[in-house]
């Protein structure tokens, strides 16, 4: 049975309201809110764009079978706080505990926040603990035995546990990223961490005249992170001003500069301002993330102003500036990858582009992973991937229709893939499949999570209600509060 008939059969078994009754409320009555798929605002056309030919069965946007893969959560259905530190974790009660993340010996340690932390103003004064601003956590620059510089990252899980870190004045750290020097600004630096249920409030970032050759990554939560789920940032001000430079990439967002997954997050009362006279390849400015592999069920409420005429590409977006409908998938089963390979080979006279595309993916056999050492797992990201699979199986809304524990062969995208490489390879996919929309439909059919789904943007000061957030899970994750909505994990 082909994909469309299969889905039609599923949908026809459900009593459906009239199509107009299930359109996103944002499209019906809030002109400043937008339901987003990729970079294109959609409202009434959502079903036609996602699943052409299925419209006759009704308004699919609100149907659980469709939402199962539209809203593929990376976080658990948690609406409570953990009161005791789990075995094997380190609890954080104060700033001294938080500073443990600066120790490279803790790069694989899981941390859990057990109290709110408010950084006192005097910490930022002359002679204070953070006189030059709070520098990013979780990026470790060390020298090996022969004196060469090595860069390692925090690769554990940081569980905010529904608590908040507030009064953050974030400073810049300069690091070498491969052969490229980088400027990082964020609570976390350049990491592959999983950060969940953490709130940030009263955050200020002001980066003036960064080093001319440095790439720049800015985000209140992280310069670069892996999975970011169930987090929020409120009252955020970010200002970037550069007079000169010749950099490759600048990526900044009020939550993350760069992220692999963003799920069920929000940013409120945020202002992002960029005045960059540098020359450069690409500048990405996003309300939630500058760039991300995937962003779902999240919203941004704030304002953006971006002026960067010297860049070859300057992209800005209230959600994420670089989320195409066809974007490089992060994780594919071997079966799905074979189909992608076939399309790439069919579209080219030779196999150069196919080989180029494949060079960015690592094939992982979980049967062999089970037999290798923990050190090798960490080095090749298998450990994080295994934890990701375990997480998918523990949630009620899985990324894949089948039990992923039965799938042993996978392809995972190299997290070090540059923005330029992501953009060029996305274009390969668009060319191979004929259009971005065709590739999007392919991803949905094969449960490949990429792109931007069920995300909203609102102007500064807008009132946000649950009726305006179609497909948000108000049974488990979200709750309507006075003057807006919030995540249940942050309830007192």
Brief account:
The chain is α/β, with parallel strands linked by helices and 492 residues long.
What does this structure look like?
It contains 12 helices and 29 strands. With 492 residues, the chain is α/β, with parallel strands linked by helices. The protein has an 8-stranded parallel β-barrel. Strands 9-10-13-16-19-22 form a 6-stranded mixed sheet, with no helix packed on it. β28 and β29 form a beta hairpin. It is globular.
Features of the shown structure:
3 domains; globular; alpha/beta; disordered N terminus; eight-stranded parallel β-barrel; 492 residues; six-stranded mixed sheet; 29 strands
Structural class: alpha/beta
Q: What distance lies between the first and last C-alpha atoms, to the nearest angstrom? A: 49 Å
The overall average pLDDT, rounded, is 75
Largest sheet: 8 strands, parallel, barrel
Low-confidence stretches: 1-74, 377-382, 388-402
Number of structural domains: 3
Q: In what order do the strands lie side by side in the largest sheet? A: 12-14-17-20-27-21-18-15
Shape descriptor reads: globular
Report the β-strand fraction as a percent range. 35-45%
**What is the number of helical segments per DSSP (H or I, 4+ residues)?**
12
Helix content: 10-25%
**Would you report the number of β strands?**
29
Radius of gyration: 22 Å
């Amino acid at each position: 049975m082909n994909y469309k008939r299969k889905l039609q059969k599923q949908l026809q078994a459900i009593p459906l309201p009239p199509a107009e009754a299930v359109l996103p409320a944002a499209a019906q009555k809030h002109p400043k809110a937008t339901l987003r798929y990729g970079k294109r605002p959609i409202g009434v056309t959502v079903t036609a764009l996602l699943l052409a030919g299925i419209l006759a069965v009704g308004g699919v946007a609100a149907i659980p079978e469709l939402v199962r893969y539209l809203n593929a959560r990376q976080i658990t259905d948690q609406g409570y706080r953990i009161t005791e530190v789990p075995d094997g974790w380190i609890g954080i009660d104060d700033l001294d505990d938080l500073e443990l993340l600066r120790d490279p010996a803790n790069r694989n340690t899981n941390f859990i926040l057990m109290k709110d932390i408010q950084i006192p103003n005097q910490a930022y004064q002359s002679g204070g603990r953070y006189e030059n601003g709070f520098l990013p956590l979780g990026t470790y620059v060390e020298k090996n035995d022969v004196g060469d510089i090595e860069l390692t990252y925090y690769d554990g899980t940081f569980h905010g546990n529904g608590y908040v870190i507030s009064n953050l004045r974030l400073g810049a750290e300069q690091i070498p990223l491969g052969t490229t020097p980088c400027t990082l600004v964020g609570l976390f630096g350049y990491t592959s961490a999983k950060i969940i249920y953490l709130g940030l409030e009263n955050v200020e970032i002001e980066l003036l005249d960064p080093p001319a050759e440095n790439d720049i990554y800015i985000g209140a939560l992280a310069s670069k992170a892996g999975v970011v789920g169930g987090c929020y940032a409120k009252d955020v001000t970010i200002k970037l001003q550069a007079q000169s430079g010749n950099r490759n990439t600048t990526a900044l967002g009020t939550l993350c500069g760069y992220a692999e997954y963003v799920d069920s997050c929000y940013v409120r009362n945020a202002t992002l301002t960029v005045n960059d006279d540098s020359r450069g390849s690409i500048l990405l400015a996003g309300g939630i993330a500058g760039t991300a592999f995937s962003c779902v069920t999240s919203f941004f409420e704030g304002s953006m102003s971006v002026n960067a005429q010297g860049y070859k590409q300057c992209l800005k977006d209230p959600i994420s500036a670089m989320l195409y409908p066809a974007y490089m998938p992060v994780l594919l089963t071997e079966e799905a990858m074979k189909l992608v390979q076939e399309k790439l080979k069919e579209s080219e006279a030779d196999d150069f582009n196919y080989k180029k595309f494949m060079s960015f993916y690592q094939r992982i056999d979980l049967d062999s992973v089970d037999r290798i050492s923990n050190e090798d797992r960490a080095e090749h990201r298998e450990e994080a991937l295994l934890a990701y699979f375990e997480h998918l199986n523990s949630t009620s809304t899985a990324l894949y229709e089948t039990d992923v524990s039965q799938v042993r062969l996978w392809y995972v995208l190299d997290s070090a893939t540059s923005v330029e490489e992501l953009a060029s390879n996305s274009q390969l996919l668009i060319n191979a499949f004929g259009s971005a929309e065709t590739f999007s439909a392919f991803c949905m059919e094969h449960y490949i999570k990429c792109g931007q789904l069920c995300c909203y943007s609102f102007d500064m000061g807008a009132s946000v209600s649950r009726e305006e957030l179609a497909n948000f899970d108000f049974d488990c994750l979200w709750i309507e509060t006075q003057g807006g909505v919030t995540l249940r994990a942050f309830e007192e």
